[in-house]
Amino acid sequence: MNCIILDDEPAAVAILERYIQKVPDFQHLQSFHSPTEALAFIKQQSVELIFLDIQMPDLLGTELVKLLPKGTQVIFTTAFSEYAVEGFSLRAVDYLLKPISFPRFLEACNRALENRTQRNSTNDYIFVKDGHDWIKIIWNDILFIQSDGNLLYIHEKDRKVITRMPLKDIIPQLPVGQFTRIHKSYIVSFTAIKRIERHQLHVQNAIIPIANSYKDTLEKHFGLK
Predict the structure, then answer these.
(1) DSSP secondary structure, 136-189, as one string
(2) Residue 139: which of 161, 112, 115 has the closest Cα?
(3) pTM of the prediction?
(4) Do 161 and 130 contact (CB within 8 A), yes or no?
(5) Interatomic CA distance for residues 115 and 89, integer angstroms
(6) Which residues contact 5 (CB under 8 A, 6 or more apart)?
(7) What are the structural domains, with CATH classification, of the chain?
(8) For 52-104, what is each residue's pLDDT tens digit?
């Protein structure tokens, strides 16, 4: 499960980063001290989970969570217990009070993993519109998705489906941990990748560009760095 940290306290970020390294199923993408920078990152990269501080100078975490894409899981981290009721009303996975112990942190992580398992067990397809027809797309059949303005080209092994939808609208619907964004216009299935080069990768007979801003996430997933 990939995740980011948003907390304006460097010491708190360091603790969470150390804890995440101890959880085998978790991949730390990046840490942020600024809500604005975190939101900009989330718009470009599919994020499954965010460890979110509540008390921040620019924007409360309880307000920021309302701006997140549908399906993004949230674990609140804070030194103030009075926000607990509001935190759970926003359907947070958990609410961690600082200082956070590792056993308590691990409990929250396991809840997030359980949520992901339940979600993946119920959503193995999507219907998209192609002209006047609705086409069923099985997530496991997708090799990659290409965006051109408001058009999506969904590439499978034996067919290509074209639908009118911006890329940002399909990202929250993707099964967690199965796809990754590698370019502002491309999302690929991890299992479909056959070769990774410096600035591009190979999926079946297609060669797809890799943007520098996404290369780190890709290499981390495959343990290449």
Answers:
(1) EEEGGGEEEEEEETTEEEEEESS-EEEEE--HHHHGGGSPTTTEEEEETTEEEE
(2) 161
(3) 0.63
(4) yes
(5) 17
(6) 13, 16, 17, 20, 28, 30, 31, 32, 50, 51
(7) 2-121 (3.40.50.2300), 125-221 (2.40.50.1020)
(8) 998 888 888 888 888 888 788 999 998 877 655 565 567 789 989 999 999 99
